[in-house]
Amino acid sequence: MSTEKKKALFICLGNICRSPIAEGVFQKTVNDMGLGDEWEIDSAAIGGWHVGNSPDWRALDTMNKHGVPYNNCARQIISEDFNHYDFIFGMDETNMKDLKTRAPRGSKAKLLLFGDFDPQGDRIIRDPYYDSDSAGFEKCYQQSVRCSKGFLERLAAGELNN
To answer: Gene3D superfamilies from the entry (predicted)?
Structure first.
């Protein structure tokens, strides 16, 4: 059995709404499956505005409501991430474009749109930052649950191997 951990990084614009929820949900999903020790999981931002900050209170509230523990702080993606992580997930097409632009030539990480793993076909995880309520955060949570399971099922089936 390989002792090398699989590594996943979740990316959104500011790392205080969508990517922390995706990170927390993915960690809880692999923990619940008994696979938590096989994964290294983190999240980061495209932009640096919120570096060092905790997630938006609505993101924390949503995770807390669903029993998803979270205590990470925002950070910005760095070029080394593209060779450290096996999978880097963007939340929308703009994130994906930014990731493809920043990825060093020949880097190992697979750049994946997280929503592509939603069995309901809801591909874009919309940024709820400017919403006046928590509904968008709840939707992000539900999408993250479906996408985490969908990705892990496809990975287990060998569909994501090179």
So the answer is: 3.40.50.2300
